[in-house]
Amino acid sequence: MVATLLRDDPAADVLIVERGDDVGGTWRSNTYPGAACDVPSALYSFSFAPESGWKRAHGTQAEIYAYLRRVAREQGITQRTMFGCALRDAQWDGDRARWVVSTSRGDLTADVLIAATGALSTPTLPKVPGLEMFRGTMFHSAEWNHDHDLTGKRVAVIGTGASAIQFVPSIVDKVEHLTLFQRTASWVMPKRDHGIASSVRSLYRRFPLIQKVVRGAVYSQKEMYVVGMTKPFARKYALPLFEKRARSVLRKQVPDPELRDRLTPDFAITCKRILLSNDWFPAITRRNVDVVSSALTSATENGVVDAAGNEYPVDTIIFGTGFTPSEPPVAQHVRGEHGRSLAEVWNGSPSAHLGISVNGFPNLFLMYGPNTNLGHSSIVYMLESQAAYIADA
């Protein structure tokens, strides 16, 4: 998004502080098997940097990471970035009308501070008694241990969200047994993924306008979901059709009525994120999979325990327990004109004007700020809109 600022003023004194060793954010860090985007490739790219080479309708982690690295290089972003540099503290100095920023590589000041740490950057682990005693291997899906071979292992997967729904089908054939802890069932819809023919990619390269038209059509189709989510008449008539479709998928792919009942959400569709997958239900109905309808309550030296006290022997625990979008860690390190941190001001309920600026924090702008996430389309569109707003400011 810095590219938006630099296009208006190429000479702008812009410095990016990045704690990682490369650009890419979540697509650099999340390398678990099966990692891919649930937003169509046509939308999951910057308007100023169209990509004609997507090989699938939904980009894979490797494709998206390569795209982000290329755009950063071409837009001159990497030359303005201090990699391996973590933010320690940022304090507004009212006397000088500047931000005083402390990092792991020294201090600096800035007229404007932009917090673009993302909503899916810090993995969260549940506080489970006994984890410190577990003798096996455990890791979060966002910090996948590629050195640990899962072949023939007894694996416990904690969580059934957007990450688990991708990596579980990718590992289920390798493991001896998989125990899946599901605290809350999710609505699952088919993922309209398919390969993009080389002839189509060539057409996009030769005639960029065609790709723009396709992008516009996909965007318009996705925006129709908003009507179903927000308009009373549509909620009454359209959402039941969505739910009927999701129930149909569940009925066809899960023959066991008892398991099907446990996999059926007890809330209306769109109240939580709809998950997209073609192989989730077939994966978790395999003979070597047990679905436990409870949270993980404790761990032992050699296993995990459910809410009913049943223990399951496992060699490996994989946490698909998500991130901290409602409590971004950066909020603890940014202090405004009264010396209070963002976390203290928000007090567990983040809010910001347009999701971008917060009263009492002058010249601070948030990217992917509170309440700007989407349940139907591409966050990239939101980020570009925020970047344009910040550039204007």
Labels describing this entry:
393 residues; alpha/beta; FAD/NAD(P)-binding domain; 3 domains; five-stranded parallel β-sheet; 12 helices; 18 strands; 17% strand
Quaternary status of these chains? single chain
Strand order of the largest sheet: 7-16-8-9-12
Q: What is the SS-derived class? A: alpha/beta
Report the span from N to C terminus: 14 Å
Low-confidence stretches at least 5 residues in length (pLDDT < 50)? Answer: none
Q: Quickly name the level 1 CATH class of the largest domain.
A: Alpha Beta
Proportion of strand residues: 15-25%
Q: Strand-and-helix sequence, N→C?
A: HEHHEEEEEEEHEEHHHHHEHEEEEEEHEH
Shape: globular
For the largest beta-sheet, the strand count, sense and barrel status come to:
5 strands, parallel
Total of helices: 12
CATH architecture descriptor of the largest domain: 3-Layer(bba) Sandwich
CATH topology of the largest domain: FAD/NAD(P)-binding domain
Number of domains: 3
The average pLDDT score comes to: 93
Number of strands: 18
CATH superfamily of the largest domain: FAD/NAD(P)-binding domain
> What is the CA-atom radius of gyration, in angstroms?
23 Å
What portion of residues is helical? 25-40%
